[in-house]
Design brief:
Elements (H helix, E strand, L loop, with lengths): L14 H52 L10 H10 L5 H13 L5 H6 L2 H7 L6 H18 L7 H4 L17 H11 L3 H9 L6 H11 L9 H9 L17 H11 L5 H21 L25
Helix pairs in contact: 1-12, 1-13, 2-3, 2-10, 5-6, 9-10, 11-13
Bound molecules: iron/sulfur cluster (SF4).
Iron/sulfur cluster binds next to helix 11.
Length: about 325
């Protein structure tokens, strides 16, 4: 109101004032958002630092009981890759029988295996179970290896890959020259890029891809399996508090990330062997003690690390 009692318009804010208000609102939103993000990151870090000590101690306990496992049980990197596909949903004994058939038929090489009909391949790998599905999956993998990674079929995209940057094949006997070259091309490049390349192949999921990367490709890519999920859940090391089925694929990446961020205390050169053996040790615990029903905690090397036994650390 003015001095004469007339209603007056509120003073118009200048353009600069409006701009300043908008900036203040945006700033406060940004600060709120940053605070939330930093809280989430802090809670993830807290979780990692809480489980770092028990996870590292777990390895010492398992290693003391079982000794170094020298995994993967395969003679060559190519055999490791074939085994990684055949072992899906079956036990290793069945895989060994299937691989023995391939060796007896003298076809355990990419070109020879790919030249077989799907029916013949399925017959040979029959002991591994789900043989029709696995024959299809093997052929999908072989197609990439033979048609995209063989020097004779060398596509431009692969030719550009820096083969010398890959450091595979340190853990077992070498494959023959042409197979070795195919595998070097397959595994050449950054771990995440190679992993994506493998995951694009039909029938290769995260566990199979990581097994190939870690044990055949020489890449630092931790393997998570049903045993790992069960053991982590029972010891409350799982980053997700809600209970998940050990067979469910959800939570795979979180668990993998947790292990990779926590089990990094060794120098890079020793870390590959450490992660290879860590997974092998978890398989030993899972197979012999941490059964789905009636786990044998009293005899298990990880008993001191059960949630109720924290004092024993
Ligand atoms: S058997 Fe018991 S102590 Fe061993 S890993 Fe499983 S829950 Fe832990």
């Amino acid at each position: 109101m003015d001095s004469a009692g007339r209603r007056t318009r509120p003073a118009r804010r200048g353009r600069h004032q409006n701009w300043a208000i908008r900036q203040r609102v945006l700033c406060s939103r940004y600060v709120r958002c940053s605070l939330i993000k930093s809280r989430v990151a802090k809670s993830a870090n807290r979780k990692s630092s809480t489980v770092a000590s028990p996870l590292r101690r777990a390895y010492d306990l398992m290693r003391a009981r079982f000794g170094h496992q020298h995994w993967w049980p395969g003679d060559t990197p190519f055999e490791v890759c074939v085994g990684a596909i055949l072992t899906q949903n079956t036990n290793w004994g069945n895989v060994e029988r299937a691989i023995a058939n391939l060796k007896a038929a003298r076809v355990l090489e990419p070109e020879k295996l790919f030249a077989l009909s799907e029916k013949r391949l399925a017959d040979l790998i029959c002991p591994a179970g789900y043989f029709n599905v696995k024959a299809r999956r093997l052929r999908s993998f072989l197609r990439v290896l033979v048609e995209e990674c063989d020097a004779d079929h060398e596509p431009v995209s692969q030719r550009a890959a820096d083969v010398s940057s890959a450091e595979p094949f340190k853990t077992c006997r070498q494959d023959a020259g042409s197979t070795l070259a195919c595998l070097q091309r397959l595994f050449a490049g950054e771990t995440s890029a190679v992993r994506d390349r493998l995951l694009r192949i039909s029938g290769i999921g995260p566990e199979t891809a990581d097994s190939m990367l870690l044990y055949a490709g020489g890449h630092h890519s931790f393997v998570v399996d049903a045993y790992t999920k069960r053991i982590f859940q029972r010891h409350e090391w799982n980053p997700k508090s809600k209970v998940q089925s050990p067979k469910s694929s959800s939570g795979y990446d979180e668990l993998k990330q947790l292990c990779e961020s926590v089990l990094n205390e060794k120098p890079v050169l020793e870390r590959l062997d450490y992660w290879q053996d860590y997974h092998a040790q978890l398989v030993m615990v899972g197979k012999h003690f941490c059964r789905t029903r009636n786990p044998l905690c009293d005899q298990c090397p990880l008993k001191p690390l059960l949630p109720g036994n924290k004092d024993n650390l």
